[in-house]
Amino acid sequence: MNYILERRLKTLGWLTLGLALAGALAFVMIRDTAGYFVERQAVAVAEMVVTLSKTARSVYSQEVVKKLQKDGTGSNVDFEHMPGYIPIPAQFLKLLGQASTKNTSHLFQYRPVSKWNLEPTQGLTDDFLRWAWPQLESQDQAQPDKPIDWKPVWRIETQADGTKALRYLAADPASSQLCVDCHNSYERTEAVVARRQADQIPTGKEWQMNQLMGALSVTVPLERIETMAAEQIRRAVLWIVGILLSSLVAIGVAWSWSAAQRRKVAHLSWQATHDALTELTNRRGFERSLNRFWVSATEEDKPHTLAMIDLDNFKPINDTYGHHAGDEVLKLVAKTIKSHVRASDVVARLGGDEFAVLFHGCPTDRALGIAETICQAIQDAKLDWDGHKLGVGASIGLAVITGKTESVRDVVETADAACYTAKKAGKNRVFGG
C-alpha cells in the first residue's frame, strides 16, 4: 500500500513539475513576446513620426515656400535677418521636431541629422548616430534612377537616467531638384568647406536626386510602453497561475476519482473471487486457478498437486456452540493452512467446511509431506471459546495434475475420491490419489 501511495505521489510530483515547467515556459514566451511588442510599438511610433515629418516638410515646401517664391521672397538660411523670408525646409523640420517634443510631453523626440550637416547641431553627435549612419550610407547608389528602398536602422539603448529608449534613424534623401541644387550650392560656401575640413570630410560633394543627403533621428522613450507591457505580463501571469492551479485541482480531483474507481473495481473483483469469512480464494477463484494450473501442466509439462480438505467433527461445534464459534474455527483453520504453504500455492475455501490447496510445481510425493504437516497442524490448532478448547481434524485427498491429465474435472473427482477414502479410513489423515 505504501509502495502504491509512493508511486502516486511521485507521479503527482512529476505532473506538478511538468505543469510548473510549462508555466515557466509560457511566462518566458510571454515575456519575450512582450519585449518584441514593446520594440515593435516603439518602431511603429518612430515610423509614424518620420512619415508625418516628411509629409509636413513636403507640404511646407510645395505650398508655403513656392508661394513665397512666386511673391518674390522664399526660404533662406538667414531668414531671421531677412524680412519676408522663412526657414528653409531643413530648418523648418528642425523647428517642427523641437515643438513636437515639447507639445507631446516627450512622448518622442526627433530631429534632422546628417554627416553633411549645414549647422553643427545637426551633425552625428552621439555613438548611435555614428553607428547607424554608415549603415544608411551603405544603401546609397552612385547613379540612382529611381527612389532607393531605404531600410531604417534602430536599436534599444539605455539612457543616462537608466531608462530605455528606441533609437531610430531613417534616411531623408534628396526628394526634389530644388533641394539638390540648394544643398550643392551651400556645400561650396566657405563656412561649409571649412567645417568639412575640420571634420576631415572630403569637400565638394555633389548630390543627385534620391541620394542620401540627411536622415531623421527619432528617440522613443520606452517607459510608457513597458508599463503597458508589464501590466499585460502581470495579467498573463495571473492567468497562467490560475490555469495551473485549476489544472492541478482538476488533476487531483480526477486522480482521486480514478483511484476511488480503481479501488472500487479492485474490491469488487476481490469480492468476486474471495471468501468473505476467511479471505481465502473462493470456489470461483479456485476454479480459475485450477484451470490455469492444468493449462500449465499441459503446455509446460510441469506437475502440480491438488489437495481437497474436508474438516472432521466440525458440525458438532456449530450445533453445540453456535455458528459464530464455527466461523471462528473456520478462520483459525484457514490461517493454519495458509501458514504452511508457499506464496505460489493457492488456498481456497470451497464452501462450508471444505477447503482446497493447489501446490504449484509440486509433485504428489512432495505434496504428501506438506499435506501431512497441514493435517497435523489443523488437529493441533485449538480455539479458546468461553473456557472450552474447540478443535477439528482434517481428511485430505491428493490428486496430481500432469500433461496427461485429461480435464480439470478429472483432477477434482480424483482428489475428492482420495479425500473420501481418507475419511472412511479413520479421519485425520492424508490419502494420495
Describe this structure in words.
There is one protein chain. With about 425 residues, the protein is of the alpha+beta class. The protein is built from 11 helices and 13 strands. The chain has helices spanning about 1-70, 90-105, 125-135, 175-185, 190-200, 225-275, 285-300, 315-320, 325-340, 365-380, 410-425; strands at about 75, 85, 110-115, 155-160, 165-170, 215-220, 305-310, 345-350, 355-360, 385, 390, 395-400, 430. The strands form 4 sheets. It has a 5-stranded mixed sheet, with helices on both faces. Strands 3-6-5-4 form a 4-stranded antiparallel sheet, with helices on both faces. It has a two-stranded parallel ribbon with strand order 1-2. α1 packs antiparallel against α6 (about 225-275) and α8 (about 315-320) crosses α9. The longest helix has about 70 residues, at about 1-70. It starts with a helix and ends with a strand. The model has no long low-confidence stretch (mean pLDDT about 85).
